[in-house]
Amino acid sequence: MKKVNFVFNRAMKLILNPKAEWSIIQAETQTKSATINNYALPWMIIMVLCSFIGDSLFVSNQPGYIVTKGVFIFAVTYMGIYVSALIINELTTSFSSKKDIDTIFKLVVYSCTGYFIASSVALLLPPLVILFALGLYSIYLFWEGSSNLLGTPEDNKVGFVVVSSLVMLGIYAILSLMLRAILAAIFNINLAIG
What we know:
79% of the residues lie in helices and 0% in strands. It has eight helices and no strands. It has helices at 2-16, 18-27, 32-59, 63-91, 101-111, 113-124, 137-150, 154-187. Helix 3 (32-59) runs antiparallel to helix 4 (63-91). The chain is globular. The two termini are 27 Å apart.
């Protein structure tokens, strides 16, 4: 229960007052594994549960499809975060930012809060798939966090955020398309993974 409270409190604070919350996050010492396990993993589980419920109610009554799609959502999200953080970590020095893999994981994971929330709601209510667009709030969260966590200078901030956002969106899009194709081939359906 303590972890659930942490996840929801952190998410609310990041959405409502990101500047103050990034200052708190900056002071925390967490490894990349702790950041993923304590924040991203609960959100990935929530997204999968929302997908199970939403697909059961609105999309399909095939248990195999529902479970496979849930596994794919988890895999796309996990791989997307992990690969994005590794690539962004290598880009930091080009933008006069601090290169530190644990800090980059904090930035990537916590900035995904908008995506986690929007995806959870959109997966729970598939007819409202447009809600995925609200996940773009994550770009603003990344913007706010990049200065606090990495010391990105203001004159490099736009370039760093744009390139990092393109990396994250590109990786997610590629993984999502690959896994959507697999899902469509297995179940002979073509639906969004989320």
